[in-house]
User: Which sequence fits this backbone?
C-alpha cells in the first residue's frame, strides 16, 4: 500500500499569502495605534444666543442661531439641514422623502450633544431629552423648491415642554 502524504500548504500559498497577511497585520497595527480614537466628535461652535423663550413658547431659528429656554438652563442651536430628500414643488414622487435636521443641546444638567431628527413633508418630530421634550413643528421651506434650497434659507419652528 502506498500512502501519500498530502501537503496542507503549497509553496505558492506561502509565496503569495504570507506577504498579504503581513501587510494586513501591519495596517491594523498602524490604524489601531492612531491617536484619533481619543478624539471626541466636534460640533460647529454654538452661536451666541439669538433669542430667549419660555417653555411651550414657539421658537423659530435659522441655521447658526440658538435659543435659550428661560429659567430652565437649556439652550438649543440649529446647525443645518442635512440630506433633504423631501419631494420638491411640482414634482411627482414615488416616496415623500425626509430631511434630517441637525441641532445641538447645551445644558449643565443633561449631557450636551448633537440632536438629529428626521422630518417628512408637512410632518413634525419630537424627541425626549431628560425631563423635557423637543417638538419640531415645521421645517421651512416645505415643500422645497425643485431648484434646491440654499442652506441659509432653512428655518425650523419648535417648542420645548417639560415632561
Assistant:
Amino acid at each position: 500500500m502506498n500512502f501519500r502524504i498530502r501537503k496542507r500548504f503549497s509553496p505558492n500559498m506561502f509565496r503569495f499569502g504570507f506577504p498579504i497577511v503581513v501587510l494586513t497585520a501591519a495596517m491594523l497595527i498602524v490604524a489601531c495605534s492612531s491617536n484619533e480614537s481619543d478624539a471626541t466628535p466636534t460640533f460647529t461652535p454654538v452661536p451666541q444666543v439669538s433669542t430667549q423663550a419660555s417653555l411651550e413658547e414657539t421658537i423659530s431659528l435659522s441655521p447658526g442661531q440658538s435659543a435659550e429656554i428661560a429659567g430652565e438652563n437649556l439652550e438649543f442651536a440649529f446647525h443645518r439641514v442635512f440630506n433633504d430628500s423631501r419631494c420638491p414643488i411640482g414634482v411627482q414622487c414615488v416616496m415623500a422623502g425626509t430631511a434630517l435636521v441637525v441641532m445641538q443641546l447645551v445644558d449643565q444638567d443633561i449631557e450636551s450633544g448633537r440632536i438629529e431628527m428626521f422630518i417628512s413633508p408637512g410632518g413634525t418630530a419630537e424627541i425626549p431629552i431628560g425631563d423635557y421634550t423637543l417638538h419640531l413643528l415645521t421645517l421651512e421651506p416645505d415643500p422645497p423648491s425643485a431648484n434646491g434650497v440654499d442652506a441659509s434659507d432653512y428655518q425650523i419652528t419648535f417648542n420645548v415642554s417639560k415632561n
Q: What stands out?
A: Residues 11-32 form the longest helix (22 residues).
